[in-house]
Write a structure and sequence with these properties.
Largest sheet of chain B: 4 strands, antiparallel
Largest interface: A-B, 23 and 19 residues
Order of helices and strands of chain A: HEEEHEEHEHHHEHEHEE
Number of helices of chain A: 8
Number of strands of chain B: 4
Radius of gyration of chain B: 30 Å
Radius of gyration of chain A: 18 Å
Number of strands of chain A: 10
Strand order of the largest sheet of chain B: 2-3-1-4
CATH superfamily of chain A: P-loop containing nucleotide triphosphate hydrolases
Mean pLDDT of chain A: 92
CATH architecture of chain A: 3-Layer(aba) Sandwich
Bound molecules: adenosine-5'-triphosphate, magnesium ion
Low-confidence stretches of chain A: none
Low-confidence stretches of chain B: none
Number of domains of chain B: 2
Strand order of the largest sheet of chain A: 6-7-8-3-9-10
Structural class of chain A: alpha/beta
Largest sheet of chain A: 6 strands, mixed
Shape of chain B: elongated
CATH class of chain A: Alpha Beta
Shape of chain A: globular
Distance between the termini of chain A: 47 Å
Distance between the termini of chain B: 25 Å
Helix content of chain A: 25-40%
Structural class of chain B: alpha+beta
Helix content of chain B: over 70%
Oligomer: heterodimer
Strand content of chain A: 15-25%
Order of helices and strands of chain B: HHEHEHEHEHHHH
Number of domains of chain A: 1
CATH topology of chain A: Rossmann fold
Amino acid sequence: MALERRRKKQKQKAEDVVILDHVSKAYSTGAPALDNVSLRVKKGEFVFIVGDSGSGKSTLIKLLLKELNPTSGTIIVNGQDLGRLRRRKIPKFRRGLGIVFQDFRLLKDRNVYENVAFAQRVIQAPIRDMRKAVPAVLSLVGLAGKYKAKPRELSGGEQQRVALARALVNHPSLILADEPTGNLDPKNTKEIMKLLEDINDRGATIIMVTHNREVVNEMKKRVITMKKGVIVSDEKEGEYLDD
Amino acid sequence: MISTLFYTTKQGIVNIFKNKWFSLASVATISACLFLFGVFYTIILNFQNIVKTAEEGVSITVFFDEGTTEERMAEIKELIAKRAEVRQIDFISADEAWESFKDEYLGEYQDGFTENPLADSANFEIYLNDVSMQGALVTYLESVPNIRQVNRSEVTANTLSGFNLLISYISAGIIVILLAVSVFLISNTVTIGISVRKEEIGIMKYIGATDFFVRAPFVIEGMIIGALGAAIPLTAIYILYAKVVEFLGERFSVLTGIMTFLPIEVVFENLLPISIGIGVGIGFFGSFTTVRRHLKV
Ligand SMILES: Nc1ncnc2c1ncn2[C@@H]1O[C@H](COP(=O)(O)OP(=O)(O)OP(=O)(O)O)[C@@H](O)[C@H]1O
Ligand SMILES: [Mg+2]
């Protein structure tokens, strides 16, 4: 009986990529940015996080990649209790994540190839593997022909695709994206969303913060709506809620 | 692992060229400081050598009471030789004293003497380890029975030891000030250079780069800059030294007797490792500590 329960617990642990248990985060100033939030995300899920500006979405993402520590509560990501994760172990933990930001965050003085290759160098991938993996992921995002270009020579959509390629090249099981289409026009937005959907179909878990109503309503995925640091709704095939 | 090392080194070198002006400013700062350091070091070393050569010539002469036996003299010699201040002690017999007196002052008239007029002038010539100890030794010598007279060269000894001390203090002061200034200047330059790359460091950390991986190229860059910053002033000093020594020799030929310059090899024996050590060390710690401030992402 006890054995079975433990096995069940283990299975659950393996299935839940993200667990937030009564998590609060207060910055030194003002009201808490996250207020007693509990949340589970299963392996392979695609989750949108929406809500007003200042409702705590970015704070949530930063907690998940341990850029910030919660004031209280427990966070488990990829089976790792972040409260017990030593500073020295953070790099290794982050290698299991793919992170995409609204502002791309590419290394400005390196070309497309080097920006993507950098993620491989960080994990000390053998050069031979790198020479295969980087072109492969670049052609996946449709940028194989521009591998020599510097970020400033690319459009916003292209830059975001480079960032996405960099996030994907190490095959992370969890992708965290904070408004990845925030700076893109509808056409580029659609292309990025298509890519994310493909990756999700291949088994990656995706948590994406967005303000884009059309994207959310079209995709018919799980939608978590936040307001003033609290989850106000969590729908399986949700829609972008109005106030 | 090897590819990481290779990549890191290459990145460090690439960074130097990418931030041309920053690299140039850093090399110039380190060069200027190490040049001044080298010049002072060279001057001090030569001064100390001159003083030391002069000091080595300083001696105390000890004469004995009339009728002191040779055995007693040997006893006294042993006593004196045991003293810590004493570097060397030479016995000059009465005959030797007379011979050297004759040679020095009488020249061709020396034949008129059949007996040694300096019969009681057997003496010890004592050379010291350190001229500042002369006073203590003289006091001791005067208390030894059978010693009639102690001749010393007080003026020279005091001036020399005072001079030596002064030089040591001044040089220590100048070197400390120079090092402080260069550390300040370099950490400033590095801080400016690195705040430009703060964003880059943040991105690397997001991707999961370890502190080591982020820091290594910066540290290698700093060390190369430091090594260049040492090589330039060393080369300059190497070339200048020969010119200056030659110039002084021609211009102040009177002084050549007193001033003996050390060969450049002797100067570089310590200056080379010290300069390179300081340059590379400053480059290493400068970049190491400044990067650290930006690593907490
Ligand atoms: N570094 C910080 N220091 C202090 N307060 C902060 C900090 N970062 C965020 N906040 C505050 O925390 C709250 C939540 O911010 P957060 O960035 O998570 O909002 P958000 O939902 O991502 O908003 P947006 O949609 O505009 O990006 C806001 O009130 C914000 O002012
Ligand atoms: Mg935000």
